[in-house]
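Usage

Read records sequentially. Each one opens with the input sequence:
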Amino acid sequence: MSDKSVFTEKQYLGREFIPLTIRLVLAMFCFAAYFFTDERERNGDLLVVVGFSIIIISIILGFLLHFRTRVENKSVMLDGLWTTKLVKIDLNSIVKVEKGTYSRYMFNNPVYNLHTKGTIRFFTSGNEAIHLTDRDGLLYIIGSKHPNEFLRAIREEMRK
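and closes with the structure output:
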């Protein structure tokens, strides 16, 4: 058994398009409100500070890793932020693998190891996911920016 990953993907919290757009619109609103305040009072200066703070937080979130997905040694390993535990899904117990959509909703919150109604979800961004069903009927939904490569890697590891 080799320790080399067949597939590796990193998903970052701050790189999702819709939340990033919302943060930048809020910052622009703060700057516009500052521009239109009369006499540049102290409350107006606070708007500039808040606007720059939103931009700085957005930049920091762009480098904040939410989770990393790896396919190696007949397993899918998901490693999250600081205090999250490593989740290892054994591909020997998987009976069905398919590509599908993550959710029918347009806005989805990033989740890591969310257990609801017989499914376990892992998601940061995008709208496509890999659906893994194990022998017990438990469904793993793993969001991915590269679902075709992820699906190919899983099927390749299951054939070994």
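Summary fields computed downstream for this record:
- The two ends are 11 Å apart (CA to CA).
- The chain has two domains: 13-63, 66-159.
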